[in-house]
Amino acid sequence: MMTARKLVMLAAVLLLAGAVWGYWSDRDMASGENTAQTGMDHAGMEGQMGGAALPREMTSTFMAGVADGAAIVTPRLPATLSEAAQSGKQVFDAKCAVCHGTDAAGKKGNGPPLVHKIYEPSHHGDYAVQLAVVQGVRAHHWPFGDMAPVPGVTTAQVEQIVAYLREMQRANGIR
Predict the structure, then answer these.
(1) Angle 155-171/126-135 helices, nearest 10 degrees?
(2) How many CB atoms lie within 10 A of CB 140?
(3) Angle between helix 155-171 and 83-95 (nearest 10)
(4) What is the enclosing helix (H) or strand (E) of 157?
(5) Which tens digits make up the pLDDT trace of 135-154?
(6) Who contacts 73 (Cβ-Cβ below 8 Å, separation ≥6)?
């Protein structure tokens, strides 16, 4: 059984690993150029979200064309959702959409899109989502500020939310 101290240590290790991965994933291996500085992600996102590459970060330049309160991206919806994802969508709509928008598309002025390469499982794993919901998380990719813990959401419900988000991501080419 994991103690709270072990969970905190595990979370710190995961965050550090994510930071290291993020640093190296933003580098073009041929030139060493920091591709995050261009504001665009060049790692396989071409053709996503209406044919244009998604910005790696929600920069002020990108966000200038989005109205306050509007969806930041327009994700494709999966043809069907699993039973767990359907339940997760219901919880997401009730607890998360106020900030992260309908269909996890983000909401300018409120919260980032979760249907985005930044939240792919290899960078923000399922456990990271669980921690964010239970403990909140400091802003580290976006200009939206810190995310507060979400009260009244059970571990089982977060697992359903994750199932929903992962199915939405796969429908948009995020693996």
Answers:
(1) 130
(2) 11
(3) 100
(4) helix 155-171
(5) 999 998 888 999 999 999 99
(6) 49, 54, 105, 106, 113, 115, 116
Which amino acid, residue 158? V
* Total-model pTM: 0.68
Name residues whose C-beta falls within 8 Å of residue 104's C-beta, 6 or more positions apart in sequence: 75, 92, 96, 97, 113, 114, 115, 164, 165, 168
**How much is the average pLDDT of 159-171?**
98
DSSP structure class, residue 77: P
User: Half-sphere exposure of residue 77, counting CA atoms within 13 Å on the CB side?
Assistant: 8
CATH of region 4-171, choose from 3.30.450.20, 3.40.50.300, 1.10.760.10, 3.40.50.2020: 1.10.760.10
